[in-house]
Amino acid sequence: MARPRPGQLPTLDRRSVLKVLLAGAGLAAVPGLAACGSGGSAASDPNTVTFGSNGSDAKPKQAYQAVLDAFAKQSGGLTAKPNVQDHNAFQQNINSYLQGTPDDVFTWFAGYRMQFFANKKLLTPIDDVWDKIGGNFPQAVKDLSKNPADGHYYFVPIYNYPWGVFYRKSLFQEKGYEVPKTFDDLINLAKKMQGDGLSPFVQGFGGGESWMLLGTFDYLNMRTNGYQFHMDLMHGKESWADAKVKSVMDSWKRMLPYYQAGASSKKWEDASAALVNKTGGMMVIGMFVGQSFTDKSAYDDLDFFAFPEINSQYGIDAVEAPMDGFLLSKNPKNPDGAKKLLEYLGSAAAEDTYLSIDSSNLAVNEKADTSKYGTLQQKAVKFVADAKQLSQFGDRDSDPGFIQNVVEPAFAQFVQSPNTSDSLLTQIQSQKSQYFQS
To answer: What letter does residue 173 receive in the DSSP assignment?
Structure first.
């Protein structure tokens, strides 16, 4: 699977007991868990740092390997040994992985997703690393790399990528479509597309990928009720049964008649083929959708616009821009070597190397070289920079167990049975107390 959403959790069996584990419950035996940690003699080799990676798809895998190779050349004898796992499986086993024998350094996500494990005492603070790399990053990135509960840094970022409404420029030109400014404009455009025989909203949330629905909800909620209400809802401070959330679902209902046929059985990669071959009109997704465009001319034709305005009080101020990076495990076998690796990963050179291969992301290091950015990346940089608020994504801004176990299944049911929205919101609210204290 090409690198999915911001902070993907398990997808292989989302109704399994692993959901409970990810909500912070006790450790249980997980088949195949041993594959997640390197362990063994290599892990105790003073010249080797183990690197756990969820970058199993071609571009991320190649990019991370290039970064590790570059690190080895300038490290004075240190080698980083990658332990690459399937993206979904890595997320599925993360709780058990961290309580077992994790790699020294491993890939993960900023914000709440990092804080969750820091608060469980499953990570090592890296304030000393930030003493050396702190000058490379803006304050917003620093804030997302720190755990507010204890004031320590735990996260070294490497890139972020915005979510928007992606489309093909040539298709819009051929059909005379205009980029919508308001939500009403968006629905009217969808009607036109449907009349032209297109699937207006390309969508895929099957095969355990109901997380794809979170991006649409996040934007609908931020556009309707504002960033602060959205974040308070994600943090358990607002009621899911509130009339404000019901209004969000009412707007979502207006989109559903224009969803791609069979969306509930497609993965996002399969669904995005309609964007590639221009049988679909628009797709609410992250910039990683560019991985589906293997032909350069088609990739150069890819564009996006901000999710349109719903409430003029909030406009399009908030942008969803998840950030990925690295953490240091609780008891690394080679702590000194691991911190040297993290220092390198926090350098402009590391970001430049990574992004030279995987261009579907944006540098967060202020010293990174952006001179070779293509049109899409340049637009995305401005899009993020102009935002007044940045969200990380549904399951990064909230308790991951709550989102995965409660919210995602409810959204998947809603999309297939829209008239159940009120009862589903009541159901979400009734289960919220299992994850958030009142």
So the answer is: H
